[in-house]
Automatic annotation (TrEMBL):
Its EC number is 3.5.1.1. Residues 3-186 form the L-asparaginase N-terminal domain. InterPro entries: AsnA_fam, Asp/glu_Ase-like_sf, Asparaginase/glutaminase-like, Asparaginase/glutaminase_AS1, Asparaginase/glutaminase_AS2, Asparaginase_C, L-asparaginase_C, L-asparaginase_I. It comes from Terribacillus halophilus. GO terms for molecular function: asparaginase activity. The active site is at residues 12, 85. Belongs to the asparaginase 1 family. One of its GO terms (biological process) is amino acid metabolic process. This is asparaginase. Residues 204-318 form the Asparaginase/glutaminase C-terminal domain. Keywords: Hydrolase. Substrate binds at residues 54, 85-86. Homotetramer.
Amino acid sequence: MKKLLLLTTGGTIASVEGENGLAPAVDANELLSYVSDLDNEYTMETISLMNLDSTNMQPEDWVTMAEAVRDHYHAYDGFVITHGTDTMAYTAAALSYMLQNSSKPIVITGSQIPITFQKTDAKKNIKDAIRFACEEVGGVYVVFDGRVIQGTRAIKLRTKSYDAFESINYPYIAFIHDDTIEYNKKTHGENLPFSVDTSLCTDVLLLRLYPGLKPEMLDALASMYKGVVIESYGSGGIPFEERDLLQKINELVEKGIVVVITTQCLEEGEDMSIYEVGRRIDQELVIRSSNMNTEAIVPKLMWALGRSTDPKEVKGMMETPIAEDITIWPS
Ligand SMILES: NC(=O)C[C@H](N)C(=O)O
């Protein structure tokens, strides 16, 4: 019989209607009591880690989650983490970097409607997450609306619908119908030892380009940030005429700030080799994001900067695939 650990962190799934709107209040044991009709092919213990709307979550909370899994890793066969949907994709990616080569499933789920409501997606999502946590697969996954998504590949695309998450730039791992798991993609198990590194440097800025952005605003960044992620356009380019951002980016790099270039397009990733606006960027100096999703790039950069302050080493870590975050499409 599988032995699972449920870690709860808040989110809509644990929310109740209060004077100021929905806010998390349900603890782990109460949450579990709503799905007590499950057949007991497993035993489950619980820890209420925190009770936050995931909008309020901070990188330090990712560390708390990663440490909870680390501290109980050997005592359980699988882990279920309930979480708000708003920042779930960031957490799933962050845990994928901090907890590498897990031979056990670490499954994150949540819901669009609280478990305390009559009509809710919460019960199905918890049941599916528990079902997947009983599988013989290692790694971090998001389970939502019957879909299993690699932890570095989930993106919240919808604010209200049950199918809030999609797997972007990567196939779905599996689909769950009732109690049956239909695999769609083989999970990659290389049998490497489980490794935990929770040091993060949170001095990271995410900047979305838009026509009219003032280049001088980049001057203010150097004293505050060690890493900047630029969500540029299309295949990845930086404006060099009129409001010249390229010059400012080169200045940032000269000051030792690491700069990652990605794209606002959700699918197919950057390819800076196509256009002049891309080729003018010195690709030896900036970090290429390939087809990583922004929700993965930000925590990966915090994790990489937590391990090294040498821009070359950080570039090497960022451009190395981890937990399926970079792939040649279709794979
Ligand atoms: N559906 C949800 O869980 C949204 C909620 N605001 C949260 O992220 O905590």
